[in-house]
Fold this protein.
Amino acid sequence: MDKLRENWGSKLGFILAAAGSAVGLGNIWRFPYLAGENGGAAFIFVYILCVLVIGIPVLVAEILIGRTTQKNPVGTFKQLGKTKFWIAIGGMGVAAGFIILSFYSVVAGWTLGYIYEAISGNLMQYNLPDVTNSHFTALIQNPVWIISMHGIFMLLTMSVVFFGVQKGIELGSKIMMPLLFVLLIALMIRGLTLEGASKGLEYLFYPDWSKINMKVILNALGQAFFSLSLGMGAMLTYGSYMSKKDNIPSAAIWVAFLDSAIAIIAGVCIFTVVFATGQNPDAGPSLIFRTLPVVFTKITGGYIFSIIFFIALSLAALTSTVSLLEVVSAYFVDEKGWSRKNAVLLFGLMIFIIGIPSALSFSVLSGFTLFDKSFFDLTEFLSSNLMLPIGGFFISIFVGWIWDFEKVIENIKPGAEKIFMKYSWIFIGWKLILKYLAPVLIFIVLLSSIGII
């Protein structure tokens, strides 16, 4: 079975697919908002530091254990960890992908629905925040609309994963990621040409060092960790399709660079037009659906740019949902001997069905709560706040403490011989980070994400 397992057609294919997994809705709205709220350039500096010190080392570790075994998260820990505990950690990664996709596809469906809203011209009718807010609320409270958009987005996701690693995920990433980049650049250029755009740049890039405190550092650390899709098994699974000739540290740096660059570009796109049109930059998550439609009505060419923006947003979401479904599919293909097509069709359908209560959390199930959370909020909390940091914590523990360091070096050297020969001290530093620094900081992220600190 291992000999028949698919591989990436090129290193570029892996980098674009992995960057696509990392780049998602959080890059487009959450990163710019956090940056502006937490000191602008000062936050970006702390964020980049967190990516370099924690994000990339853990990313390298996750990719490495996937490439070493050429298996899914469960198969990887079954081969390397051998105990039931480590197999369970791998299983948690598969479960996280399943749960995250069930609610993430709901929000991704909103972006798809807003492409239609933009093309139909509906968005251009709403030039006041209150009216735009009412329109958005009416849409997500419409069970037919929200379930339909959720279903269509799942079909798009399934169609990419259905065709396999090279013909589906890699080909799709080679099309979607450059297109996403081009669309964001076009939006950024338009934003920069607006009168008053400099205020947006100041909001995003002017360093207010006085705002840097422990909360800001935790926000930056959490954003760095979650933005790179760490702990959910996606990077491990994508790494399992890598060739032994590929340079893992180099690929990881490229993935982190593209992820951060797109987040910063998105920030410029959004806040130049928000400030140029006098809108509220503190809208947070609602910025995308409640504030930006108003912005588009106030700029020349707003109709075209509203379409471009929501297409870009949908592409960012799709590259992430594809990686989540691949984690689930790879498990059943590798461990259970299923065909890829059957795994994608069955579990894509199951994830759609399980996502329906999340979709209805804004309408007919809005009164249903468990532990004081709606179904949507509960699934997001369990996966994002618990499963992901726990997964990342144990990946760093496994590579730093459980896996013999000589074996770690033996497996990471192929493809990175030049780096190892010239800068062998980097691998010693990487090991120390995984042993001591990363587990402590990820554990702090976990405590912060569940509200203990």
Remarks:
- The chain has a mean pLDDT of 91.
- The longest helix spans residues 84-120.
- The chain is about 75% helix and 0% strand.
